[in-house]
Amino acid sequence: MIDSTTIAAIATPAGRGGVGIVRVSGPEARDVLRALVPAWPDDHPSHKLRLSRIHDEHGDLVDEALCVLMESPHTYTGDDVVEFQCHGGPIILRRVLDAALASGARAAGPGEFTERAFLNGRIDLTQAEAVADLVEATSVSAHKLAMEHLQGSLGAAIRELRTLTMEAVTLVESAIDFAHEEHVYQIEHDEVLQRVDKVIAELRDLKRRFDQGRRQREGVRVVILGPPNAGKSTLFNALHGSERAIVTSIAGTTRDFLEEEIHLEGVALRVVDTAGLRDATDEVEQIGIERSRELQSKADLVIWLVDQEQGLDDDQRRDLEETLARHIETVVVRNKIDLPSTLTADDVALLERFEHVVPTALAADGEREGMDELVGVLTGIAAELTSGEGVLLSRTRHLECVNRALEALGRAKEAVEAGMEHEFVALDLREGLDALGDIVGQVSTDDILNKIFSEFCVGK
Ligand code: GDP
Ligand code: ZN
Protein backbone atom coordinates (compact mmCIF):
# COMPACT_ATOMS: atom_id res chain seq x y z
CA MET A 1 0.00 0.00 0.00
CA ILE A 2 2.93 2.35 0.58
CA ASP A 3 3.39 4.31 -2.62
CA SER A 4 7.01 5.19 -3.37
CA THR A 5 6.36 7.63 -6.19
CA THR A 6 7.20 11.29 -5.78
CA ILE A 7 4.24 13.65 -5.73
CA ALA A 8 3.99 17.37 -6.40
CA ALA A 9 1.28 20.03 -6.14
CA ILE A 10 0.68 23.72 -5.69
CA ALA A 11 -0.01 23.92 -1.97
CA THR A 12 -1.33 27.46 -1.76
CA PRO A 13 -4.77 28.70 -2.89
CA ALA A 14 -5.36 29.53 -6.55
CA GLY A 15 -4.96 33.16 -7.54
CA ARG A 16 -2.36 35.78 -6.81
CA GLY A 17 -0.62 36.21 -3.48
CA GLY A 18 2.60 37.36 -1.90
CA VAL A 19 3.86 33.81 -1.83
CA GLY A 20 2.85 30.62 -3.58
CA ILE A 21 4.26 27.25 -2.69
CA VAL A 22 4.93 24.19 -4.80
CA ARG A 23 5.44 21.17 -2.63
CA VAL A 24 7.17 17.95 -3.64
CA SER A 25 7.35 14.81 -1.53
CA GLY A 26 8.93 11.43 -2.10
CA PRO A 27 12.22 9.66 -2.64
CA GLU A 28 12.97 11.71 -5.76
CA ALA A 29 12.23 15.10 -4.22
CA ARG A 30 15.92 15.87 -4.03
CA ASP A 31 16.37 15.07 -7.72
CA VAL A 32 13.50 17.38 -8.58
CA LEU A 33 15.16 20.13 -6.57
CA ARG A 34 18.48 19.58 -8.40
CA ALA A 35 16.74 19.66 -11.77
CA LEU A 36 14.96 22.93 -11.01
CA VAL A 37 17.81 24.51 -9.05
CA PRO A 38 21.02 23.28 -10.71
CA ALA A 39 23.05 25.49 -8.36
CA TRP A 40 21.72 23.79 -5.19
CA PRO A 41 24.82 22.86 -3.12
CA ASP A 42 25.01 19.19 -2.13
CA ASP A 43 26.05 20.06 1.39
CA HIS A 44 23.26 22.55 2.05
CA PRO A 45 21.73 21.58 5.41
CA SER A 46 18.30 20.01 5.67
CA HIS A 47 15.35 22.17 6.71
CA LYS A 48 17.19 25.37 5.83
CA LEU A 49 15.84 27.89 3.36
CA ARG A 50 18.04 29.09 0.53
CA LEU A 51 17.36 31.84 -1.96
CA SER A 52 17.66 30.12 -5.32
CA ARG A 53 17.03 30.59 -9.00
CA ILE A 54 14.42 28.17 -10.32
CA HIS A 55 14.62 27.03 -13.92
CA ASP A 56 12.05 25.13 -15.91
CA GLU A 57 12.70 21.92 -17.80
CA HIS A 58 14.06 23.93 -20.80
CA GLY A 59 16.52 25.77 -18.62
CA ASP A 60 14.57 29.05 -18.68
CA LEU A 61 14.60 31.11 -15.51
CA VAL A 62 11.14 31.05 -13.89
CA ASP A 63 11.57 32.70 -10.51
CA GLU A 64 13.98 33.59 -7.78
CA ALA A 65 12.57 32.05 -4.63
CA LEU A 66 13.23 30.55 -1.21
CA CYS A 67 13.70 26.82 -1.53
CA VAL A 68 14.10 24.18 1.10
CA LEU A 69 14.92 20.50 1.23
CA MET A 70 13.57 18.70 4.29
CA GLU A 71 15.05 15.27 4.63
CA SER A 72 13.10 12.23 5.82
CA PRO A 73 11.89 11.34 8.38
CA HIS A 74 11.24 14.66 10.13
CA THR A 75 8.91 16.08 7.52
CA TYR A 76 5.19 16.52 7.10
CA THR A 77 4.84 13.36 5.03
CA GLY A 78 7.71 11.41 6.51
CA ASP A 79 9.40 11.30 3.07
CA ASP A 80 11.89 13.83 1.69
CA VAL A 81 10.02 17.06 1.05
CA VAL A 82 11.04 20.01 -1.12
CA GLU A 83 9.23 23.32 -1.14
CA PHE A 84 9.58 26.11 -3.66
CA GLN A 85 8.30 29.27 -1.98
CA CYS A 86 7.79 31.34 -5.10
CA HIS A 87 6.25 34.67 -5.89
CA GLY A 88 2.54 34.02 -5.77
CA GLY A 89 1.52 34.32 -9.42
CA PRO A 90 -0.43 31.60 -11.24
CA ILE A 91 1.94 31.42 -14.22
CA ILE A 92 5.00 31.03 -11.99
CA LEU A 93 3.43 28.29 -9.89
CA ARG A 94 2.09 26.44 -12.90
CA ARG A 95 5.50 26.49 -14.57
CA VAL A 96 7.34 25.36 -11.43
CA LEU A 97 4.86 22.54 -10.98
CA ASP A 98 5.19 21.53 -14.65
CA ALA A 99 8.96 21.53 -14.28
CA ALA A 100 8.68 19.30 -11.20
CA LEU A 101 6.37 16.95 -13.10
CA ALA A 102 8.84 16.90 -16.01
CA SER A 103 11.63 15.88 -13.64
CA GLY A 104 10.05 12.76 -12.24
CA ALA A 105 7.24 13.78 -9.92
CA ARG A 106 3.58 13.07 -10.56
CA ALA A 107 0.63 15.30 -9.72
CA ALA A 108 -0.66 14.70 -6.19
CA GLY A 109 -4.34 13.90 -5.61
CA PRO A 110 -6.49 15.58 -2.98
CA GLY A 111 -5.08 15.14 0.50
CA GLU A 112 -2.27 12.94 -0.77
CA PHE A 113 0.46 14.64 1.26
CA THR A 114 -1.55 14.07 4.42
CA GLU A 115 -2.34 10.53 3.33
CA ARG A 116 1.40 9.90 2.95
CA ALA A 117 1.93 11.24 6.45
CA PHE A 118 -0.72 8.82 7.68
CA LEU A 119 0.62 5.84 5.72
CA ASN A 120 4.16 6.60 6.94
CA GLY A 121 2.88 6.59 10.51
CA ARG A 122 3.62 10.28 11.08
CA ILE A 123 0.04 10.96 12.14
CA ASP A 124 -3.04 8.89 12.90
CA LEU A 125 -6.34 9.15 11.11
CA THR A 126 -7.88 11.56 13.62
CA GLN A 127 -4.95 13.89 13.03
CA ALA A 128 -5.33 13.60 9.27
CA GLU A 129 -9.00 14.51 9.64
CA ALA A 130 -7.98 17.39 11.87
CA VAL A 131 -5.83 18.79 9.07
CA ALA A 132 -8.90 18.96 6.84
CA ASP A 133 -11.02 20.35 9.68
CA LEU A 134 -8.40 22.96 10.46
CA VAL A 135 -8.43 24.21 6.90
CA GLU A 136 -12.24 24.14 6.81
CA ALA A 137 -12.80 25.70 10.23
CA THR A 138 -14.94 28.82 10.08
CA SER A 139 -15.57 29.28 13.81
CA VAL A 140 -13.10 29.75 16.63
CA SER A 141 -14.48 26.71 18.49
CA ALA A 142 -14.23 24.50 15.39
CA HIS A 143 -10.66 25.66 14.93
CA LYS A 144 -9.83 24.94 18.57
CA LEU A 145 -11.23 21.41 18.33
CA ALA A 146 -9.31 20.71 15.12
CA MET A 147 -6.12 22.01 16.72
CA GLU A 148 -6.59 19.72 19.72
CA HIS A 149 -7.09 16.75 17.40
CA LEU A 150 -4.05 17.69 15.39
CA GLN A 151 -2.07 17.51 18.61
CA GLY A 152 -3.35 13.95 18.87
CA SER A 153 -5.67 14.26 21.89
CA LEU A 154 -8.35 11.96 20.50
CA GLY A 155 -5.82 9.50 19.12
CA ALA A 156 -4.07 9.31 22.48
CA ALA A 157 -7.34 8.74 24.34
CA ILE A 158 -8.34 5.97 21.95
CA ARG A 159 -4.93 4.29 22.06
CA GLU A 160 -5.16 4.12 25.83
CA LEU A 161 -8.51 2.37 25.55
CA ARG A 162 -7.10 -0.02 22.98
CA THR A 163 -4.30 -0.92 25.34
CA LEU A 164 -6.77 -1.75 28.10
CA THR A 165 -8.90 -3.79 25.71
CA MET A 166 -5.80 -5.58 24.45
CA GLU A 167 -4.91 -6.50 28.02
CA ALA A 168 -8.36 -7.98 28.46
CA VAL A 169 -7.94 -9.94 25.22
CA THR A 170 -4.61 -11.27 26.43
CA LEU A 171 -6.09 -12.37 29.72
CA VAL A 172 -8.90 -14.20 27.96
CA GLU A 173 -6.79 -15.72 25.20
CA SER A 174 -4.10 -16.97 27.52
CA ALA A 175 -6.86 -18.75 29.40
CA ILE A 176 -7.84 -20.40 26.12
CA ASP A 177 -4.27 -21.59 25.57
CA PHE A 178 -4.16 -23.19 28.98
CA ALA A 179 -7.39 -24.93 28.16
CA HIS A 180 -5.70 -26.78 25.34
CA GLU A 181 -3.23 -28.18 27.81
CA GLU A 182 -6.21 -29.33 29.84
CA HIS A 183 -5.29 -27.31 32.84
CA VAL A 184 -8.10 -26.41 35.10
CA TYR A 185 -8.37 -22.74 34.61
CA GLN A 186 -10.60 -19.77 35.04
CA ILE A 187 -10.63 -16.49 33.22
CA GLU A 188 -9.62 -13.88 35.70
CA HIS A 189 -13.16 -12.54 35.60
CA ASP A 190 -12.49 -9.55 37.77
CA GLU A 191 -9.33 -8.64 35.92
CA VAL A 192 -11.10 -8.79 32.58
CA LEU A 193 -14.23 -7.01 33.75
CA GLN A 194 -12.28 -4.28 35.45
CA ARG A 195 -10.67 -3.37 32.12
CA VAL A 196 -13.78 -3.79 30.01
CA ASP A 197 -15.84 -1.70 32.44
CA LYS A 198 -13.27 1.06 32.36
CA VAL A 199 -13.23 1.16 28.57
CA ILE A 200 -17.05 1.12 28.42
CA ALA A 201 -17.24 3.96 30.94
CA GLU A 202 -14.75 6.06 28.98
CA LEU A 203 -16.49 5.40 25.68
CA ARG A 204 -19.83 6.41 27.20
CA ASP A 205 -18.18 9.57 28.39
CA LEU A 206 -16.89 10.30 24.89
CA LYS A 207 -20.39 9.71 23.55
CA ARG A 208 -21.94 11.96 26.15
CA ARG A 209 -19.57 14.73 25.23
CA PHE A 210 -20.26 14.24 21.54
CA ASP A 211 -23.95 14.65 22.38
CA GLN A 212 -23.22 17.77 24.36
CA GLY A 213 -21.50 19.25 21.35
CA ARG A 214 -24.40 18.31 19.10
CA ARG A 215 -26.93 19.81 21.53
CA GLN A 216 -24.92 23.00 21.71
CA ARG A 217 -25.01 23.24 17.95
CA GLU A 218 -28.53 21.99 17.27
CA GLY A 219 -30.51 22.29 20.50
CA VAL A 220 -31.76 19.74 23.04
CA ARG A 221 -34.25 17.28 21.59
CA VAL A 222 -37.28 17.11 23.86
CA VAL A 223 -40.24 14.87 23.25
CA ILE A 224 -43.55 15.09 25.11
CA LEU A 225 -45.07 11.65 25.67
CA GLY A 226 -48.09 10.31 27.48
CA PRO A 227 -51.49 8.74 26.87
CA PRO A 228 -54.18 10.51 24.86
CA ASN A 229 -55.81 13.37 26.69
CA ALA A 230 -53.11 13.67 29.36
CA GLY A 231 -52.45 17.29 28.40
CA LYS A 232 -49.48 17.01 26.00
CA SER A 233 -50.73 19.59 23.57
CA THR A 234 -51.72 21.86 26.42
CA LEU A 235 -48.19 21.68 27.76
CA PHE A 236 -46.70 22.13 24.31
CA ASN A 237 -48.73 25.30 23.89
CA ALA A 238 -47.97 26.54 27.36
CA LEU A 239 -44.24 26.04 26.72
CA HIS A 240 -44.39 27.70 23.42
CA GLY A 241 -46.87 30.35 24.40
CA SER A 242 -48.83 29.86 21.22
CA GLU A 243 -51.80 27.95 19.92
CA ARG A 244 -49.76 26.01 17.45
CA ALA A 245 -50.95 22.59 18.55
CA ILE A 246 -54.65 21.95 18.49
CA VAL A 247 -55.81 21.40 22.04
CA THR A 248 -58.82 19.17 22.22
CA SER A 249 -60.55 16.94 24.71
CA ILE A 250 -61.12 14.16 22.15
CA ALA A 251 -58.63 11.34 22.73
CA GLY A 252 -56.08 10.69 20.01
CA THR A 253 -56.50 13.77 17.83
CA THR A 254 -52.85 14.79 17.76
CA ARG A 255 -52.23 12.42 14.85
CA ASP A 256 -48.93 13.65 13.63
CA PHE A 257 -46.34 15.43 15.66
CA LEU A 258 -45.42 19.07 15.86
CA GLU A 259 -42.00 20.45 16.51
CA GLU A 260 -41.09 23.86 17.80
CA GLU A 261 -37.95 25.44 19.08
CA ILE A 262 -38.19 27.23 22.39
CA HIS A 263 -35.42 28.90 24.34
CA LEU A 264 -34.91 28.59 28.07
CA GLU A 265 -32.19 30.87 29.39
CA GLY A 266 -30.11 30.68 26.24
CA VAL A 267 -30.49 26.96 25.64
CA ALA A 268 -32.51 25.89 22.63
CA LEU A 269 -35.03 23.09 23.09
CA ARG A 270 -36.55 21.38 20.09
CA VAL A 271 -39.85 20.25 21.53
CA VAL A 272 -41.99 17.63 19.89
CA ASP A 273 -45.63 16.96 20.71
CA THR A 274 -46.63 13.42 19.80
CA ALA A 275 -49.66 11.31 19.28
CA GLY A 276 -50.75 9.44 22.39
CA LEU A 277 -48.43 6.61 23.27
CA ARG A 278 -50.90 3.79 23.43
CA ASP A 279 -51.64 0.70 21.40
CA ALA A 280 -54.36 1.70 19.00
CA THR A 281 -56.39 -0.24 16.53
CA ASP A 282 -56.86 2.81 14.37
CA GLU A 283 -54.24 2.58 11.63
CA VAL A 284 -53.61 6.31 11.37
CA GLU A 285 -52.97 6.57 15.06
CA GLN A 286 -50.73 3.49 14.97
CA ILE A 287 -48.31 5.25 12.64
CA GLY A 288 -48.19 8.15 15.04
CA ILE A 289 -47.39 5.80 17.90
CA GLU A 290 -44.53 4.13 16.06
CA ARG A 291 -43.10 7.52 15.33
CA SER A 292 -43.53 8.44 18.97
CA ARG A 293 -41.40 5.51 20.03
CA GLU A 294 -38.83 6.35 17.39
CA LEU A 295 -38.76 9.95 18.58
CA GLN A 296 -38.33 8.79 22.14
CA SER A 297 -35.28 6.77 21.23
CA LYS A 298 -33.72 9.85 19.67
CA ALA A 299 -34.73 12.28 22.39
CA ASP A 300 -32.28 13.87 24.78
CA LEU A 301 -35.09 14.48 27.24
CA VAL A 302 -38.55 13.00 27.63
CA ILE A 303 -41.38 14.86 29.29
CA TRP A 304 -43.77 12.16 30.38
CA LEU A 305 -47.29 13.29 31.08
CA VAL A 306 -49.39 11.30 33.51
CA ASP A 307 -53.09 12.05 33.73
CA GLN A 308 -53.68 11.56 37.42
CA GLU A 309 -57.45 11.58 36.93
CA GLN A 310 -57.22 8.67 34.45
CA GLY A 311 -54.51 6.90 36.42
CA LEU A 312 -52.08 4.44 34.82
CA ASP A 313 -52.90 1.34 32.81
CA ASP A 314 -50.61 -1.64 32.38
CA ASP A 315 -49.18 -0.36 29.10
CA GLN A 316 -48.19 2.90 30.71
CA ARG A 317 -46.68 1.13 33.70
CA ARG A 318 -44.61 -1.00 31.34
CA ASP A 319 -43.54 2.03 29.29
CA LEU A 320 -42.50 3.88 32.43
CA GLU A 321 -40.54 0.88 33.72
CA GLU A 322 -38.82 0.63 30.35
CA THR A 323 -37.91 4.30 30.42
CA LEU A 324 -36.38 3.87 33.86
CA ALA A 325 -34.43 0.81 32.75
CA ARG A 326 -33.04 2.60 29.72
CA HIS A 327 -31.87 5.58 31.77
CA ILE A 328 -33.55 8.04 29.47
CA GLU A 329 -33.43 11.53 30.95
CA THR A 330 -37.06 12.00 31.94
CA VAL A 331 -39.28 14.54 33.67
CA VAL A 332 -42.55 13.08 34.86
CA VAL A 333 -45.37 15.60 34.86
CA ARG A 334 -48.23 14.53 37.07
CA ASN A 335 -50.98 16.54 35.46
CA LYS A 336 -54.56 17.42 36.42
CA ILE A 337 -53.93 17.79 40.15
CA ASP A 338 -57.05 19.94 40.23
CA LEU A 339 -59.02 16.72 39.70
CA PRO A 340 -59.21 13.72 42.05
CA SER A 341 -56.42 11.16 41.62
CA THR A 342 -57.05 7.55 40.67
CA LEU A 343 -53.36 6.62 40.96
CA THR A 344 -52.76 3.59 43.18
CA ALA A 345 -50.12 3.62 45.90
CA ASP A 346 -47.95 1.41 43.66
CA ASP A 347 -48.33 3.85 40.80
CA VAL A 348 -47.28 6.74 42.98
CA ALA A 349 -44.26 4.71 44.09
CA LEU A 350 -43.40 3.99 40.45
CA LEU A 351 -43.53 7.69 39.59
CA GLU A 352 -41.40 8.57 42.59
CA ARG A 353 -38.59 6.43 41.20
CA PHE A 354 -38.02 9.15 38.62
CA GLU A 355 -35.58 11.86 39.56
CA HIS A 356 -37.89 14.65 38.48
CA VAL A 357 -41.63 14.59 39.20
CA VAL A 358 -43.58 17.81 38.83
CA PRO A 359 -47.26 18.02 39.84
CA THR A 360 -49.24 20.34 37.59
CA ALA A 361 -52.65 21.61 36.65
CA LEU A 362 -51.95 22.80 33.13
CA ALA A 363 -55.45 23.58 31.96
CA ALA A 364 -57.51 23.75 35.10
CA ASP A 365 -60.64 25.87 35.34
CA GLY A 366 -58.93 27.75 38.13
CA GLU A 367 -55.31 28.86 38.21
CA ARG A 368 -52.63 27.05 36.15
CA GLU A 369 -50.27 25.35 38.58
CA GLY A 370 -46.76 23.93 38.50
CA MET A 371 -45.64 25.59 35.28
CA ASP A 372 -42.91 27.67 36.93
CA GLU A 373 -41.47 24.65 38.67
CA LEU A 374 -41.58 22.63 35.45
CA VAL A 375 -39.81 25.33 33.47
CA GLY A 376 -37.21 25.57 36.24
CA VAL A 377 -36.57 21.82 36.12
CA LEU A 378 -36.36 21.82 32.31
CA THR A 379 -33.97 24.76 32.32
CA GLY A 380 -31.68 23.00 34.80
CA ILE A 381 -31.61 19.77 32.81
CA ALA A 382 -31.12 21.59 29.50
CA ALA A 383 -28.15 23.44 30.96
CA GLU A 384 -26.67 20.16 32.17
CA LEU A 385 -27.22 18.45 28.82
CA THR A 386 -25.38 21.20 26.96
CA SER A 387 -22.60 22.00 29.38
CA GLY A 388 -19.38 20.24 28.95
CA GLU A 389 -15.70 20.53 28.49
CA GLY A 390 -13.75 19.74 25.37
CA VAL A 391 -15.78 17.72 22.93
CA LEU A 392 -13.43 15.04 21.70
CA LEU A 393 -15.36 13.17 19.04
CA SER A 394 -15.71 15.61 16.18
CA ARG A 395 -17.16 13.46 13.44
CA THR A 396 -20.02 11.03 13.14
CA ARG A 397 -17.45 8.57 11.83
CA HIS A 398 -15.88 8.62 15.29
CA LEU A 399 -19.24 8.19 16.95
CA GLU A 400 -20.13 5.22 14.75
CA CYS A 401 -16.87 3.52 15.70
CA VAL A 402 -17.49 4.23 19.38
CA ASN A 403 -20.99 2.77 19.12
CA ARG A 404 -19.64 -0.36 17.47
CA ALA A 405 -17.00 -0.71 20.16
CA LEU A 406 -19.59 -0.22 22.90
CA GLU A 407 -21.83 -2.90 21.44
CA ALA A 408 -19.02 -5.40 21.09
CA LEU A 409 -17.62 -4.71 24.56
CA GLY A 410 -21.12 -4.86 26.05
CA ARG A 411 -21.49 -8.34 24.57
CA ALA A 412 -18.05 -9.32 25.85
CA LYS A 413 -19.02 -8.16 29.33
CA GLU A 414 -22.25 -10.16 29.25
CA ALA A 415 -20.37 -13.19 27.97
CA VAL A 416 -17.87 -13.01 30.81
CA GLU A 417 -20.59 -12.55 33.38
CA ALA A 418 -22.59 -15.45 31.96
CA GLY A 419 -19.47 -17.64 32.06
CA MET A 420 -19.63 -18.27 28.33
CA GLU A 421 -16.94 -19.95 26.24
CA HIS A 422 -13.78 -17.92 26.23
CA GLU A 423 -13.67 -18.00 22.46
CA PHE A 424 -16.85 -15.92 22.36
CA VAL A 425 -15.50 -13.42 24.84
CA ALA A 426 -12.29 -13.07 22.86
CA LEU A 427 -14.21 -12.63 19.62
CA ASP A 428 -16.28 -9.78 21.04
CA LEU A 429 -13.27 -8.13 22.61
CA ARG A 430 -11.39 -8.29 19.32
CA GLU A 431 -14.35 -6.75 17.54
CA GLY A 432 -14.28 -3.90 20.03
CA LEU A 433 -10.57 -3.54 19.50
CA ASP A 434 -11.06 -3.29 15.74
CA ALA A 435 -13.77 -0.66 16.12
CA LEU A 436 -11.44 1.44 18.26
CA GLY A 437 -8.64 0.85 15.77
CA ASP A 438 -10.85 2.23 13.01
CA ILE A 439 -11.00 5.59 14.74
CA VAL A 440 -7.26 6.11 14.55
CA GLY A 441 -6.90 4.22 11.28
CA GLN A 442 -5.08 1.21 12.61
CA VAL A 443 -7.21 -1.28 10.73
CA SER A 444 -8.94 0.90 8.17
CA THR A 445 -9.78 -0.34 4.70
CA ASP A 446 -8.87 1.51 1.51
CA ASP A 447 -12.52 2.50 1.13
CA ILE A 448 -12.54 4.42 4.39
CA LEU A 449 -9.21 6.05 3.60
CA ASN A 450 -10.28 7.05 0.09
CA LYS A 451 -13.44 8.61 1.43
CA ILE A 452 -11.59 10.61 4.06
CA PHE A 453 -8.75 11.85 1.88
CA SER A 454 -10.89 12.64 -1.14
CA GLU A 455 -12.49 15.44 0.90
CA PHE A 456 -9.16 17.26 1.11
CA CYS A 457 -7.95 19.92 -1.23
CA VAL A 458 -4.98 19.21 -3.51
CA GLY A 459 -1.67 20.19 -1.97
CA LYS A 460 -2.68 19.19 1.59
P1 GDP B 1 -53.20 15.42 24.75
O1 GDP B 1 -54.08 14.47 24.06
O2 GDP B 1 -52.26 14.70 25.69
O3 GDP B 1 -52.46 16.32 23.83
O4 GDP B 1 -54.10 16.32 25.72
P2 GDP B 1 -54.61 17.80 25.49
O5 GDP B 1 -53.54 18.77 25.78
O6 GDP B 1 -55.28 17.89 24.18
O7 GDP B 1 -55.65 17.92 26.69
C1 GDP B 1 -56.77 17.06 26.79
C2 GDP B 1 -57.84 17.71 27.64
O8 GDP B 1 -57.43 17.77 28.98
C3 GDP B 1 -58.14 19.14 27.24
O9 GDP B 1 -59.53 19.36 27.33
C4 GDP B 1 -57.42 19.97 28.26
O10 GDP B 1 -58.01 21.21 28.46
C5 GDP B 1 -57.56 19.09 29.48
N1 GDP B 1 -56.52 19.34 30.49
C6 GDP B 1 -55.19 19.46 30.27
N2 GDP B 1 -54.55 19.69 31.44
C7 GDP B 1 -55.49 19.73 32.41
C8 GDP B 1 -55.47 19.93 33.83
O11 GDP B 1 -54.41 20.13 34.47
N3 GDP B 1 -56.64 19.88 34.48
C9 GDP B 1 -57.82 19.66 33.84
N4 GDP B 1 -58.92 19.64 34.56
N5 GDP B 1 -57.89 19.49 32.52
C10 GDP B 1 -56.76 19.50 31.80
ZN1 ZN C 1 -52.31 16.50 21.96
TrEMBL record:
GO cellular component: cytosol
Quaternary organization: Homodimer. Heterotetramer of two MnmE and two MnmG subunits.
Keywords: Coiled coil, Cytoplasm, GTP-binding, Hydrolase, Magnesium, Metal-binding, Nucleotide-binding, Potassium, tRNA processing
Subcellular localization(s) per the UniProt record: Cytoplasm
Binding, GTP: 229-234, 248-254, 273-276
GO MF assignments: GTP binding; GTPase activity; identical protein binding; metal ion binding
PROSITE patterns for the chain: G_TRME
Name this protein carries in UniProt: tRNA modification GTPase MnmE
Gene: mnmE
Family: Belongs to the TRAFAC class TrmE-Era-EngA-EngB-Septin-like GTPase superfamily. TrmE GTPase family.
Residues given in the record as (6S)-5-formyl-5,6,7,8-tetrahydrofolate binding sites: 23, 83, 122, 460
Residues involved in K(+) binding: 229, 248, 250, 253
Co-factor requirement: K(+)
Taxonomic placement: Bacteria, Deltaproteobacteria, Bradymonadales, Bradymonadaceae, Persicimonas
Entry-linked PANTHER family: TRNA MODIFICATION GTPASE GTPBP3 (PTHR42714), TRNA MODIFICATION GTPASE GTPBP3, MITOCHONDRIAL (PTHR42714:SF2)
Coiled coil location: 189-216
Top EC class, one word: hydrolase
EC number: 3.6.-.-
Pfam families xrefs: MMR_HSR1, MnmE_helical, TrmE_N
